[in-house]
Design goal:
There is one protein chain. By secondary structure, the protein is mostly helical. It is 60% helix and 6% strand. It has 13 helices and eight strands. Residues 239-252 and 257-261 have low confidence and may be disordered. Its EC number is 2.3.1.225.
């Protein structure tokens, strides 16, 4: 090659390198803000997670796509937990105040002494059971696996905590940690329902349902009377127009077309009493139906020896094994009676009264880390 052509080629290459370096430096100065880079990196990570290995299935794709929605729901639930707790306390307190301020004076002048004694004993007992179990469900830790190294057996490793998970343990995205024998995260408790507070949660639901049904049934006649009174007040207008034959018969003086009705015979206090009774009956009836359905569902799960999460897992396992011609059995189902005795902590006959019908803070059966598996049905706790 001619020396001049070689020199020209080197000059062109040098010029291109300079232009490239200038463009790269400008690109570096015009980078996105840090918060935008984080969002871009997060979206890129979600896209890459859709095909991270050969085990990707529809569940992985669904979780990856809706991960931002799950994070938002967890964040809102975490911060609004105390709002839900305050709402439960306010609504329950309002019903108690109406009972003592409005209904109790009426009951003392209407019911016989025997009925008054029955309502006083049952109502206060039910209220004590509701308050006790709700407080314990909120304040009792659901149970967490140990953070330090130990020799306890585990079935898997949590992908978020990167810690060993014992049997029946699941990760809660709202609490951001693993929960022993996790059932679900309850926003009305602002706490997870796990091994150590599952009984308190179910007892609260049961006694709250009984209390709502009790109020709804015992106050039905008072509700009908109060509702009819309010309907009568609404139907009373300040004037009823009189036209046609009424004017011809001379019912009203000439030029007057309205008949002024007298004021209703109810005072402001009586109106508030009627509205309070209607409010209490509607609240307890609707809460009793909704909470009653939830209580029945959890009672069915307890009878089967499974939690809400395990219900879905066991159902999927049963379908998977059925394709191979096999039958799936829940390894933690010890028969209905044994399941209830283990759940309630009943170890002798007197415990049905002292631990079930009375407030009791006894711990549950086992530590939540290891579980006995009985392939045959026999009494785990002889009663």
């Amino acid at each position: 090659l001619h020396p001049d052509s070689t020199l020209m080629r080197c000059s062109v290459l040098h010029l291109l390198r300079c232009v490239r370096l200038r463009l790269c430096s400008r690109r570096g100065r015009s980078r996105l803000p840090l918060w935008a880079q984080r969002i871009q990196a997060y979206i890129k990570l979600l896209a890459q997670s859709l095909c991270f290995n050969s085990l990707t299935d529809s569940d992985v794709v669904f979780d990856s796509i809706f991960e931002p929605v799950f994070v938002t729901v967890d964040y809102v639930t975490r911060w609004f937990g105390m709002v839900f707790v305050c709402l439960v306390v306010i609504l329950t307190s309002s019903v108690v105040m109406i009972t003592y301020i409005v209904l109790l004076p009426l009951a003392l002048t209407t019911y016989s002494p025997a009925w008054i004694a029955w309502h006083s004993l049952y109502g206060n007992w039910n209220l004590i059971m509701i308050a006790f179990h709700y407080y314990k469900a909120i304040k009792t830790s659901p149970g967490y696996p140990p953070a330090e190294k130990n020799d306890r057996p585990f079935v898997s490793v949590c992908k978020k905590c990167i810690m060993p998970k014992p049997a029946r343990t699941h990760h809660c995205g709202i609490c951001n940690r693993c929960i022993l024998k996790m059932d679900h995260h309850c926003p009305w408790l602002n706490n997870c329902v796990g091994h150590f507070n599952h009984r308190y949660f179910f007892s609260f639901c049961l006694f709250m349902t009984l209390g709502c049904v009790y109020c709804s049934i015992s106050c039905r006649n008072m509700f009908l009377d109060a509702y009819n009174s309010l309907e009568h007040l609404d139907s009373e207008k300040p004037g009823i127009p009189v036209t046609g034959m009424g004017l011809l018969l001379g019912l009203l003086p000439s030029g007057q077309t309205n008949f002024q009705t007298p004021a209703p015979p109810y005072t402001f206090k009586e109106k508030m009493f009627h509205k309070s009774i209607v409010y209490m009956w509607v609240l307890t009836s609707t809460a009793g139906v909704a909470l009653g359905a939830l209580t029945v569902w959890h009672a069915v799960l307890i009878s089967r020896g499974e939690t809400s999460i395990e219900r879905h897992i066991n159902k999927k396992e049963a379908v998977r094994l059925a394709q191979w011609g096999k039958l799936y059995k829940n390894p933690f189902n010890y028969s209905k009676l044994n399941n209830w005795k283990i759940f309630l902590g009943v170890e002798k006959k007197s415990h049905w009264v002292t631990r079930v019908l009375l407030p009791s803070g006894h711990p549950p059966h086992g530590d939540g880390l290891t579980w006995d598996v009985f392939p045959v049905k026999r009494d785990l706790i002889a009663v």
